[in-house]
Write a structure and sequence with these properties.
The protein is of the alpha+beta class. The protein contains 29 helices and 52 strands. It is flat, with a radius of gyration of 44 Å. InterPro entries: Papain-like_cys_pep_sf, Peptidase_C19, Peptidase_C19_UCH, USP, USP47_C, USP_CS. One of its GO terms (biological process) is protein deubiquitination.
Length: 1355
C-alpha cells in the first residue's frame, strides 16, 4: 500500500503543470549576462520561489528583490506571500522572465554557506585579469560606446559591505563630476577640513550653499547603506538646471571652477585659504642674458602642472611623466630673430628663457594634455599615446640648481595681473593667486631636509575621443592602501596592474599616427600627495566628527529610513485603473487610478474609491461596490460577494506593475439589489427595436451563460424587457455589418458566437414582417441603417448677397408668374426661418424621393458603389400622385430658399460656371499654407476598412425621433477612430468628377439609390465672437457617395452642388477639400467636422493650382498669390489670360500678358519655363495640388524654344566681399563655352579670367561670403553643362561667377568679426546653416547667486 500511495503522489505531481522561471541577476556586472533557471510546480508559493532562487544564487533571503523582467517599471514580487505562482500571473508551460535586483539600493548579501554556492571568484583579485574601465550602465547619457578594449576584462563589482564605499549616480553625462567628487572625498585633508566647516543657516540657504551640499554628500558617501547616491543637490547648488546634466565638460576645468567657487564661499572663514594650502605651488618665470648674466623674473602660482604629451610639430611623444616634467623646466635659447633686449646691455642679446619650481604643493596635480588640434584635418583630436607615471614621484631632479638669486638680478615681480603676459602662460592654469598668503608648500631653496617624494593616490581616466567620452577615477585608500575603481555607481577593487593599463598607447613604436590605433582609455589627471608623516592625516572616524556633522549624520539617517519606509509602502501598493458610471455626471463613464495598500480590505478600498470619485452626497456608500471589470469589452467579470474583509492584495493577485483587468465602482438606487456576477457569465446589451416608430431604445444589460440555449436566453430577455418570448426575434451583432438572426431554439450561445460582451437587438411584434426572409425584412433594413448611420457636424457658409446663386434664382423667378411670386414672397424671410419651418417637411420629402428612385434603381446599379447603396426605404411606398406632389413641394421649397438667399436683389443672368464675385478664398489663400490640399484624400474607398468593421455602435440609437444617444463603447471607438492616421491620395483621376457624373456633379443615372439623410435643428457657431456661422448636425448613411451627399445638402447651402465645396476638418483644424464624388463617406465617423465653402467645385479634367510669385532678388523669393483652376487641354497662354484678372483683383498686380511667364515649381526651386503654346496634359504634366511660379519679366520673353536653357547667374566680388543681384542668361545650347561668353558680355570680365561654379542646395543657393571663395567647385573641367559635376539639364539652375584676378579683401579681426555676425544674421533668417561658425560648447560655470540670468534676447 505504501508503494501504491507513493506512486499515486508521483503521478499527481507529474500531472501538475510546472512553471519555468529564468532569472537575470542584475546586481553584479559579472553575473548580468548569466541566467538562473528554476522549474517549479504551478502551486508553489512566491515565498518558496524566493527561497529557491536565494539558494541557487547564493544570497541571503530578504536581501534581494525579484521583479518581472519584461516590464519597464519593475515592481518587486512579494517574497512573503503565500499566493501561488499561477495566481500571480506566471504561465505554465512558458518561459517566465524575472530580474534579481538590489533591495533598498543595497546589493544582496552573500550566504554564509562555505560550500561555495555564492560566486566567490570575484573576491579573489589574483584569480582573473581585471580592468577598471567603464562598466555597462542603464544609461550612458550619450557617451561614446567604444571605451573598452578586447584585451581587457571587467572586474567584479563588490557591494558596499565588502568595499566600504558608495558610488555616485550619473545624472546623464556627469561622469566627470563624479570622478572629481570621489577624488576629493578620498583626500583626507580636504574631507576633514570640509567637515570642520559649519554651515550658518542665517547667512545662506542650504539649497544654494555649495560647501554645505558637498559636506552633506560626503557624509552620505561615508555613512549611507545605499550602493549609490544622487548628486542632484550638489549640481543644484551650482545653479545648474537639468540641461546641464547633458553637457559633458573637462574634469580639469571643473576642478578649477569648483575651487574658485569654494574660495568665494569660504571667504572670512577658517577654510578661506584651504585650496591654496593644499593645491597651490609657486614657480619662477625667468629670462637670463647670456652675455652679462642679468636675469629678469617673476613669480607665478599654479594649481596644476600641464604636461605636454606630444610637442607641437614633433613626431615623437614623451614616454613618461618624468620626461614631460623635464621638458617643462627645460629652458629655451632666444637667439637670431628671437633675441632678447637686455636692459643692462642696451641691445638685443642671446638669452635663456625658462621656468623654475620654487615651491611644490602638498597635493600635486598633473594634467596630461591628451587633447590637441590637428592642423591637417582641422579637427580636435585625442592623443592616446602611452605615457607612464610612477607610483612614487621624486620631484628633486626638477629643481633648478643654478646659482641662487644673484646681485645681477635686475627685476622681479610677483604674480598678479602681469602674469597674463608670461611666455608660458598658455601652459599654466588661469587660476593664479597672489603671494600675500603664507605658503604652506615645500620650498626648494631649503636645506634639503624636506622630502620631495610624492605618492600617487588618484588617477582620473578618460575613455573615448575628443568629441566625447566617459570619465572614471582610480583612487587609493590611505586607510588600507587598496586601489578602487569609482565608476559612477559602481565601486570595485582593482590592482596596480589595472593602473598600469591606463598608461595608454600600444606596444609598437610611437609614430605620429600611433595613437590612432591605441586604446582610447587612458589616464588624464594624476594627483600625488607628499609623503610627510608629520602632515599626512587620516580620515575622521564617525565618533570623532564635530557636533554639527554628527547632527547631520543623524538627520540623513532619519531621512534615509523615511525614504526606505516610503519605498516599502510603494512596493506594497496596488495601482489599478478605476472606472465608474458617475450618477452625478449624467452616468458618464469616468476613469481614475486607485492606489491601495495590499493589506487594505475590500471594504476600505471601496471607501477610498468612493471618496476618490467624489460620490459623497450623490449616492450612499452602502449603494456602492467594487467589481472586477474589463474595460475593452465593457464586461463585468466578477463581483466580490462576502469578500469585504479580504485584503486587496489577495483579491488582485498581488502587487503588479499592470493588471489584465480593472475595477469598476458600481452604484445602485436604494430600492435596487446588486446582481451577483460569476465567472463564466457573459454580458449582453439588449436593444429593443420598435418597428412601428422605427426606433431603437438604449440598451438593457443582461447576463447569461454560454451553455444556455437560445430558447432559455429568450426567456431571460423576456423577464428583463417584458416582451413576449414566443414572438421574439433576436439578432446578434457580432461586428460591423454582421447581423445574425438567432432562430435555432436548441443552439447554445457559445455555438452562435457569443463572447464576454455582446450586443443584440430584439423585436417582439406580431407583424407580417416576421414572415419575410431576414435580409428582406423591415427589421434588417432598420438595423442596417442604424449600423451605418453616422453623425456629422457641418458648418455652413454665410449666405452673402450678390452671389451667383442669387442671380440664378432671379432667372428661375423670371421663368413664370408662380415662381416669381414665390421668390418675392420668400425674400421677405431669411433662410434660417425657412429652414426652421421646413425641417419636418424636408424629412418627408427625402422619403418620397427615395420611393421615386427605388422603383427603377435595380436596373441601373453603378459598379463602383457598394451593395448597401440599393436598400429600399423602410417607410411605406407612396403612389405616383403623392410622388408628383412631393416633387412639386420640393421644388417649391427650393425656390423659396433660393429667393430668400437672393435677398430680393435682381441681376443679369450669368454663366453658372463662373466664379462668384464675392467668393471666399480657400485656406491656402488666406493663410498661405502649403499643408491645405485641394484633394480630399481621406475618402479612400467605398469598401469598408478594418477600422470601420468593428465600429458597430457608431450610429445614433433612435434615428426617427431625433434621439442620438450613444453607448460608451461607441464614444470610445469614435475617439479612437478620430486619432487614427489618415492617408491622402492625390492621383490624377481624383481631381475631377467621375464618368458617372455630369459637369454639374449630378449623377448620370436616372435615379440614385436612397441613403438615409436627416438634418437636426441648426445652431450657430461662434456667436460670442461675432462670427455667426450656421452649424447643422447631419445624420447620414456613411455608404452615401460624396455626390449624393452634396445633392442632399443643396437646400441647406442655398446653391447647387456644383457651386460649393466640401472640406473635411481634422483634429488640428486643417481642412482638406473632398473632390472624389464617387467615393463614399465610409472613412468618416461620429462627430467628424465638415466645412462647406462657396465656390465652384472642380469638373472632370480640372485641377486646382496654387500660384506663387518668384522674386529672385528678394529675401523671401517665394510669395503666394492666388488659388486658381487649370483645365486639361488648356494652353499656357489661356491660363495666363485667366490669371490676369485674378492677380489684379486679389493681389493688386497689373500685368501685361507678355511681361510675365509661368514656370515649374519644385519646393522652392524654379524649374522649366512654360511656353505660351504648351498644352496642359499634352506638353506639361499636371496633377492635383499642383504649384507653379509666376515670374514678372523686365523685358519681353526671350525663351522661345524648349531647346533653350535659362540659367540664373550671380557675380561674386572677392575684392568687395559682396554678391551681386541675380541676372538671367538664356543659352541656345548646353555648352560651357557659350555660358562663359554670355557671362563675359554681361560682366565685362575677360574670358580667360572668368571662373564659374554651380550653386548648392535649394534656391537661392545662399552661401556665406566667407565661404564662397574656397568652398565651391570653381571652374570645373567640363565642356557641357549636362554632365558631372554640374548636371544642369533644366531651367532655373544657379551659377556663381568671378574674376580670377581679383584678390580677397584684406580684413582686420574686427572687420571680420562684424562680417561674421552680419552673415550669420542673414543666413539664419533664410534658414540656411552657417557652417563656418562651429557649434560652441557651453561654458562650464558655477553660479554663486543661485542660477544664471535669463537672456531674453537669446530666448
Amino acid at each position: 500500500f505504501l508503494i501504491l500511495f507513493i506512486n499515486l503522489l508521483i503521478e499527481n505531481a507529474a500531472e501538475e503543470p510546472r512553471v519555468l522561471c529564468i532569472i537575470q541577476d542584475t546586481t553584479n556586472s559579472k553575473t548580468v549576462n548569466e541566467r538562473l533557471t528554476v522549474n517549479l510546480p504551478a502551486s508553489t508559493s512566491l515565498s518558496k520561489l524566493h527561497e529557491d532562487v536565494a539558494h541557487k544564487a547564493g544570497y541571503m533571503i530578504g536581501t534581494f528583490d525579484l521583479a518581472w523582467g519584461n516590464i519597464s517599471e519593475m515592481t518587486p514580487l512579494d517574497q512573503s506571500s503565500a499566493i501561488t505562482l499561477s495566481e500571480s500571473g506566471f504561465e505554465a508551460g512558458k518561459r517566465n522572465f524575472l530580474q534579481l535586483t538590489d533591495r533598498d539600493g543595497e546589493q544582496p548579501q552573500m550566504a554564509s554557506d562555505e560550500s561555495g554556492t555564492a560566486d566567490s571568484s570575484g573576491l579573489d583579485d589574483s584569480s582573473q585579469e581585471r580592468f577598471i574601465g567603464p562598466l555597462p550602465r542603464e544609461s550612458t547619457g550619450g557617451c561614446s560606446n567604444d571605451y573598452s578594449s578586447p584585451s581587457y576584462s571587467y572586474s567584479s563589482i563588490l557591494n558596499k559591505s565588502e568595499t566600504g564605499y558608495v558610488g555616485l549616480v550619473n545624472q546623464a553625462m556627469t561622469c566627470y563630476l563624479n570622478s572629481l567628487l570621489q577624488t576629493l572625498f578620498m583626500t583626507p585633508e580636504f574631507r576633514n577640513a570640509l567637515y570642520n566647516w559649519e554651515f550658518e543657516e542665517s547667512e545662506e540657504d542650504q539649497v544654494s550653499s555649495i560647501p554645505y551640499q558637498l559636506q552633506r554628500l560626503f557624509v552620505l558617501l561615508q555613512t549611507s547603506k545605499k550602493r549609490a547616491i544622487e548628486t542632484t543637490d550638489v549640481t543644484r547648488s551650482f545653479g545648474w538646471d537639468s540641461s546641464e546634466a547633458w553637457q559633458q565638460h573637462d574634469v580639469q576645468e571643473l576642478c578649477r571652477v569648483m575651487f574658485d567657487a569654494l574660495e568665494q564661499k569660504w571667504k572670512l572663514t577658517e577654510q578661506a585659504d584651504l585650496i591654496n594650502q593644499l593645491y597651490q605651488g609657486k614657480l619662477k618665470d625667468y629670462v637670463r642674458c647670456l652675455e652679462c648674466g642679468n636675469e629678469s623674473w617673476r613669480n607665478d602660482t599654479y594649481l596644476d602642472i600641464p604636461l605636454v604629451i606630444r610637442p607641437f610639430g614633433a613626431s615623437q611623444v614623451y614616454g613618461s611623466v618624468e620626461e614631460a616634467l623635464q621638458a617643462f623646466v627645460q629652458p629655451e635659447t632666444l637667439d637670431g630673430a628671437n633675441q632678447y633686449f637686455c636692459e643692462r646691455c642696451k641691445k638685443k642679446c642671446d638669452a635663456r628663457k625658462g621656468l623654475r619650481f620654487l615651491h611644490f604643493p602638498y597635493l600635486l596635480t598633473l594634467q596630461l594634455k591628451r587633447f590637441d588640434f590637428d592642423y591637417t584635418t582641422m579637427h580636435r583630436i585625442k592623443l592616446n599615446d602611452r605615457m607612464t607615471f610612477p607610483d612614487e614621484l621624486d620631484m628633486s631632479p626638477f629643481m633648478d640648481v643654478e646659482d641662487e638669486k644673484s646681485p645681477q638680478t635686475e627685476s622681479c615681480t610677483d604674480s598678479g595681473a602681469e602674469n597674463e603676459g608670461s611666455c608660458h602662460s598658455d601652459q599654466m592654469s588661469n587660476d593664479f593667486a597672489t603671494d600675500d598668503c603664507v605658503d604652506e608648500g615645500i620650498c626648494l631653496d631649503s636645506t634639503g631636509s624636506n622630502s620631495l617624494t610624492f605618492e600617487l593616490f588618484s588617477v582620473m581616466v578618460h575613455s573615448g575621443s575628443a568629441a566625447g567620452g566617459h570619465y572614471y577615477a582610480c583612487i587609493k585608500s590611505f586607510t588600507d592602501g587598496q586601489w578602487y575603481s569609482f565608476n559612477d555607481q559602481h565601486v570595485s577593487k582593482i590592482s596596480l596592474e589595472d593602473i598600469r593599463k591606463t598608461y595608454g598607447g600600444s606596444t609598437g613604436s610611437r609614430g605620429y599616427y600611433s595613437s590612432a590605433f591605441a586604446s582610447s582609455t587612458n589616464a588624464y589627471m594624476l594627483i600625488y600627495r607628499l609623503k610627510d608623516p608629520s602632515r599626512n592625516t587620516k580620515y575622521l572616524d564617525p565618533e570623532d566628527f564635530p557636533e554639527h556633522i554628527k547632527y547631520l549624520v543623524q538627520k540623513e539617517k532619519e531621512s534615509e529610513e523615511q525614504e526606505k519606509r516610503q519605498r516599502e509602502i510603494e512596493r506594497n501598493t496596488c495601482k489599478i485603473k478605476l472606472f465608474c458610471l458617475h450618477p452625478g455626471k449624467m452616468m458618464t463613464m469616468i476613469e481614475n487610478k486607485l492606489e491601495v495598500h495590499k493589506d487594505k480590505t475590500l471594504r476600505e478600498a471601496t471607501q477610498m474609491a468612493y471618496k476618490l470619485l467624489e460620490l459623497e452626497g450623490v449616492v450612499p456608500l452602502d449603494c456602492c461596490r467594487l467589481v472586477k471589470y474589463d474595460e475593452f469589452h465593457e464586461y463585468l467579470e466578477l463581483s466580490y460577494e462576502d469578500d469585504e474583509d479580504t485584503p486587496m492584495g489577495m483579491l488582485l493577485g498581488g502587487v503588479k506593475t499592470s493588471y489584465m483587468f480593472d475595477l469598476l465602482l458600481e452604484t445602485r438606487r436604494p430600492e435596487q439589489v446588486f446582481q451577483p456576477y460569476r465567472p463564466g457569465e457573459v454580458m449582453v446589451k439588449v436593444h429593443v427595436v420598435d418597428l412601428k416608430n422605427d426606433t431603437i431604445v438604449p440598451p438593457v444589460s443582461v447576463r447569461a451563460f454560454l451553455n444556455q440555449s437560445i430558447a432559455e436566453f429568450k426567456q431571460l430577455i423576456a423577464q428583463a424587457t417584458g416582451l413576449c418570448a414566443e414572438t421574439m426575434r433576436v439578432v446578434l451583432e457580432r461586428c460591423y455589418n454582421d447581423l445574425r438572426l438567432l432562430f435555432v431554439p436548441n443552439k447554445t450561445l457559445k455555438a452562435e458566437g457569443f463572447f464576454r460582451s455582446n450586443k443584440i437587438f430584439v423585436e417582439s411584434s406580431d407583424s407580417p414582417d416576421q414572415q419575410l426572409p431576414f435580409t428582406d425584412s423591415h427589421l434588417w433594413k432598420l438595423l442596417d441603417r442604424h449600423g451605418n448611420t453616422i453623425r456629422l457636424m457641418v458648418l455652413l457658409p454665410e449666405q452673402l448677397p450678390g452671389t451667383l446663386f442669387n442671380r440664378t434664382a432671379g432667372q428661375k423667378a423670371a421663368g413664370g408668374s408662380d415662381g416669381s411670386f414665390e421668390g418675392s414672397k420668400a425674400a421677405r424671410k431669411p433662410v434660417e426661418a425657412i429652414l426652421e419651418e421646413s425641417t419636418e417637411k424636408l424629412k418627408s420629402l427625402s422619403y418620397q424621393q427615395q420611393q421615386q428612385g427605388s422603383s427603377n434603381s435595380d436596373s441601373q446599379k453603378s459598379s463602383d458603389t457598394s451593395d448597401f447603396e440599393h436598400i429600399e426605404s423602410p417607410t411605406q411606398e407612396l403612389d405616383s400622385g403623392s410622388s408628383a406632389s412631393a416633387a412639386a413641394d420640393n421644388r417649391e421649397l427650393e425656390d423659396r430658399i433660393q429667393a430668400a438667399a437672393a435677398g430680393g436683389s435682381a441681376g443679369p443672368a450669368s454663366d453658372p460656371d463662373n466664379q462668384y464675385a464675392g467668393e471666399e478664398r480657400s485656406d491656402s489663400e488666406v493663410h498661405n499654407d502649403r499643408s491645405t490640399s485641394s484633394v480630399d484624400s481621406d475618402i479612400l474607398s467605398s469598401s469598408h476598412s478594418s477600422d470601420t468593421l468593428c465600429n458597430a455602435d457608431s450610429g445614433p440609437i433612435q434615428l426617427a425621433n431625433g434621439l442620438d444617444s450613444h453607448s460608451i463603447t461607441s464614444s470610445r471607438r469614435s475617439k479612437a477612430h478620430e486619432g487614427k492616421k489618415e492617408t491622402w491620395d492625390t492621383a490624377e483621376e481624383d481631381s475631377g468628377t467621375d464618368s458617372e457624373y455630369d459637369d454639374n456633379g449630378k449623377s448620370k443615372a436616372s435615379s440614385t439609390p436612397f441613403m438615409y439623410f436627416r438634418v437636426s435643428e441648426p445652431r450657430n457657431q461662434g456667436e460670442a465672437s461675432g462670427d455667426a456661422q450656421k452649424c447643422i448636425i447631419v445624420h447620414v448613411d456613411k455608404r452615401i457617395t460624396l455626390a449624393a451627399f452634396k445633392q442632399n445638402m443643396e437646400p441647406f447651402v442655398g446653391v447647387g452642388s456644383s457651386q460649393f465645396k466640401v472640406f473635411r476638418v481634422y483634429a488640428n483644424n486643417q481642412e482638406f477639400e473632398s473632390v472624389r464624388l464617387n467615393e463614399t463617406l465610409s472613412s468618416f465617423s461620429d462627430d467628424n467636422k465638415i466645412t462647406i465653402r462657396l465656390g465652384r467645385a472642380l469638373k472632370k479634367g480640372e485641377y486646382r493650382v496654387k500660384v506663387y510669385q518668384l522674386l529672385v532678388n528678394e529675401a523671401e523669393p517665394c510669395k503666394f498669390l492666388v488659388d486658381t483652376v487649370f483645365a486639361k487641354g488648356m494652353t499656357v497662354r489661356q491660363s495666363k489670360e485667366e490669371l490676369l484678372p485674378q492677380v489684379k483683383e486679389q493681389c493688386k498686380l497689373d500685368l501685361s500678358i507678355d511681361r510675365f511667364r509661368l514656370r515649374k515649381k519644385t519646393w522652392k526651386n524654379p524649374g522649366t519655363v512654360f511656353l505660351d503654346y504648351h498644352v496642359y496634359e499634352e506638353d506639361i504634366n499636371i496633377s492635383s495640388n499642383w504649384e507653379v511660379f509666376l515670374e514678372v519679366l523686365d523685358e519681353p520673353e526671350k525663351m522661345k524654344s524648349m531647346s533653350q536653357l535659362a540659367v540664373l547667374t550671380r557675380r561674386w566680388s572677392p575684392t568687395h566681399m559682396k554678391l551681386e543681384a541675380f541676372r538671367e542668361v538664356v543659352l541656345e545650347s548646353s555648352s560651357v563655352e557659350e555660358l562663359k561668353e554670355k557671362l563675359c558680355e554681361i560682366s565685362g570680365i575677360p574670358l580667360e579670367n572668368l571662373e564659374f561654379a554651380k550653386g548648392r542646395g535649394t534656391f537661392p543657393c545662399d552661401i556665406s561670403v566667407l565661404e564662397i571663395h574656397q568652398d565651391l567647385d570653381w571652374n570645373p573641367k567640363v565642356s557641357t553643362l549636362n554632365v558631372w559635376p554640374l548636371y544642369i539639364c533644366d531651367d532655373g539652375a544657379v551659377v556663381f561667377y568671378r574674376d580670377s584676378t581679383e584678390e580677397l579683401m584684406d580684413m582686420s579681426e574686427d572687420e571680420r568679426s562684424v562680417l561674421i555676425k552680419k552673415e550669420s544674421s542673414r543666413l539664419l533668417k533664410t534658414g540656411h546653416r552657417v557652417s563656418y561658425s562651429p557649434r560652441k560648447e557651453k561654458a562650464l560655470k558655477i553660479y554663486l547667486d543661485g542660477g544664471p540670468a535669463k537672456d531674453s534676447a537669446q530666448d
